[in-house]
Amino acid sequence: MSVFRRYLFAGTALALAGVAAPGWAQTADTAAPAAPAVNDDQVAEIVVTATKRAESAQKVPISMSVVSGEQLEAFRATDVRSVMNAVPNLFVQQTAGNDVIYIRGFGSPPSNFSFDSAVSLYMDGVYAGRVRQAPMPFFDVGRVEVLRGPQGALFGKNTAAGAISIVSAGPTDSFQAGATALYDFKIEGYDANAYISGPITENLGFRVAGRIQNQDGYIRNEFNGKKEPENKNWMVRTTLKWEPSEKFDSTLKFEYVRMNRTGGQNVSGPLTTRPKADLTRYSVDSPLGREGYRNRSWILSNTANFYLGDYTLTSVTGYSRYKGTVINDFDQAVPTGGVTANSVYNSYPEDFDQFSQEIRLLSPTGRTIDFIVGAYYDDSTYHLDQFGGFNIASLNYFGLLNTFFDQEANSKSVFGQATWNVSPRLRVIGSLRYTSTHKEATFGGRLVYGPFALRPVNTTAAGSFTENLTDPSGTVQFDVTQDIMAYAAFGRGSKSGGFVSNTYGTTNADFRYRPERSRNYEIGLKFAALDRKIVGNVALYNTRFKNLQVSVYNPTTSSYLTGNAASATSKGVEGQLTVRPVRGLDITATGAYQDIKYNEYPGAACLASQTLAQCNPASPASIAANNLAGYRPSYTSKWTGSLQAHHRLLIGDYKIDTTGVASGRSSFFNSDDQSPIYGVQEGYVKYDLRVAFAPQDDKWHIAFVGKNLTNELTTGSVFRLPAPITAAPRSILYVEPSRSLAIEAGFKF
């Protein structure tokens, strides 16, 4: 048995046996979670809004995890990858393009930028289907709700695999302020944040929060001696909440994020042996500029509630924009030693804006029929340039290509959910959403300079379409006892079709790809026992996707294959457990087992393990005849899990809070071509530790924060860089963060 399985077997088995707290959160409400009582004997209740109503997570018939703002702040989470190991069946693929979120093995590949995400973020109710709309979402957050499985009925837009709802902290009834600063000794830099919150007048409250990061990276570039990627980021969020009467309130939020990430995260590896991630690289600045990621993003939202007797009418208005550029160079170090002067580089400037409006009406609860009805609209524009350049002096092969993609899109939907309270213990829930999506796009390409012969440059395509999709769901929920709830659910989800934005030589005939559809069967159990000293949940699921949207890299032809796979099925079990055996100690275990495979995948790119007789990557006819039915998709592990222990020791008027976390996953293919040599990430376990000293009133604290203490080096994705675009063929590995050791201090009043 591997180290991963040996270490986490007990915790995973316990979680899957039928227990789980819905996340690491201690508590949460619609604004910011209150701190749990010191030495409380019980696991605190978690309140969520996953069903558009505030209710206990233990009463929501959805497989979900909740991470509190305190937990995110404790280990300085910034992006979704920061909480990946805290949530079963959640994975984030790190790439040179988009980082991609997978739930239950399903997500949208990163290489085709025009893909909508199959796992969508919602920032305070505003849809953010592109990663760069909310590049650092876990900032001054009340809680994060991760919903697994299709969420088309209530969340709607492009949630075929799941949804992540982020609720930022809101204004407080009394004046509060605080600041925290951390210095990391391994990546040599600081991360500081502060907030101030309270009433301005009797009916107007405010909150202003800011964060600034100035930190070096964890990979040394031997060319310039710098540690990469260097992060210089700052962000601010301002919130105003107006409550002029008991019949109306309005919350206005504005968030601005400025990101400057300089340097790369990729290193070279061999093609003939299993790679071992290194923390050195050699990369010369390309003609396109300094390697890195620069992004500016704005999110403006307003949530207004009108209380009409026992009913609530809610309006959520959102505007989102980002403008940024990714510039990639690839490590020029040769695995056998030395460096190659041949360089490969690309750049992806983007410009996106979106307006959205949702209106919904909530009935009162406690009647025979409870309901939610609503309507939603959004429109967006998107521009993408792609520059791909090579400078292979030894082969007299050089040049620069450019493609440009423009898209306008809008969607309209109506939705409703009704709950029939058959008896005090039995509820039947039905939901339905109808969505109409319209998209139109153009795609073109040109040769900027050079004697390019490898890729066609006659890229010219245009198209438009309107599609109508319906997503129903149904749930039967039964309270076995006051503390035990069981449910069985069926749901469908969808993700709209779109257009190819990454393949040279695209024409009208192959410009469009179809929408993908999902369906999910799920049964679950949520319970509390021993006066809430144990709180748990477990879910068994069977999720199937049809017309799965895929885009994979073919290194032989140096091109992408973008389109729809026929179908894939994921089935498994996931669960979590929180136990509070004694005062001051709580233990949380999470775990998931997943069996996922393609049912049909005709026309798939060749795998590295296939012989030329099975699939010839240089032959379009051979690729067209290739079918990966029965194969497991890349980036999916059979096992994921974590074990967390939190202990509070009281010493007079002071306390020592200690939190230890072990999290990991079993092995998975981290390359599109599933190479059994260079494209496998072995199973691993990573350990985090936080030890904080503070007075019991939490007016100040000092803490040690260590992440990935054993310096387990892992890779999020890998691809093969072949000849002739390089004279030194090699694998390119995207290395995830190494060990981090930091000291933190903070105060609040």
Explain what the structure shows.
It is a single chain. The chain has 749 residues and is mainly β. The chain has a 22-stranded antiparallel barrel. The protein has a five-stranded mixed sheet with strand order 3-8-9-6-7. The two termini are 50 Å apart. The model is unreliable at 1-39 (pLDDT under 50).
Entry summary:
The chain has 749 residues and is mostly beta strands. It has three helices and 41 strands.
Low-confidence stretches: 1-39
Tell me the helix content: under 10%
Mean pLDDT: 88
Portion in strands: over 45%
Supply Rg: 25 Å
The tally of strands reads 41
Gross morphology is globular
User: What is the number of helical segments per DSSP (H or I, 4+ residues)?
Assistant: 3
| Largest sheet features | 22 strands, antiparallel, barrel
Structural class: mainly beta
**Cα-to-Cα separation, first versus last residue:** 50 Å
Index terms:
mainly beta; 57% strand; disordered N terminus
Which helices and strands, and how do they pair?
Blueprint: H1 3-16, E1 47-48, E2 55-56, E3 64-68, H2 69-74, E4 90-93, E5 100-103, E6 119-123, E7 126-128, E8 141-148, E9 162-168, E10 176-184, E11 189-201, E12 204-215, E13 219-221, E14 227-228, E15 230-245, E16 248-262, E17 266-269, E18 280-281, E19 292-308, E20 311-329, E21 343-362, E22 369-392, E23 397-421, E24 426-449, E25 460-481, E26 484-495, E27 498-499, E28 512-513, E29 516-529, E30 534-554, E31 559-582, E32 585-600, H3 620-625, E33 639-651, E34 654-665, E35 668-669, E36 680-681, E37 684-695, E38 700-707, E39 715-721, E40 730-735, E41 740-748
Parallel strand pairs: 6-9, 13-18
Antiparallel strand pairs: 1-2, 3-8, 4-5, 6-7, 8-9, 10-11, 10-41, 11-12, 12-15, 13-14, 15-16, 16-19, 17-40, 19-20, 20-21, 21-22, 22-23, 23-24, 24-25, 25-26, 26-29, 27-28, 29-30, 30-31, 31-32, 32-33, 33-34, 34-37, 35-36, 37-38, 38-41, 39-40
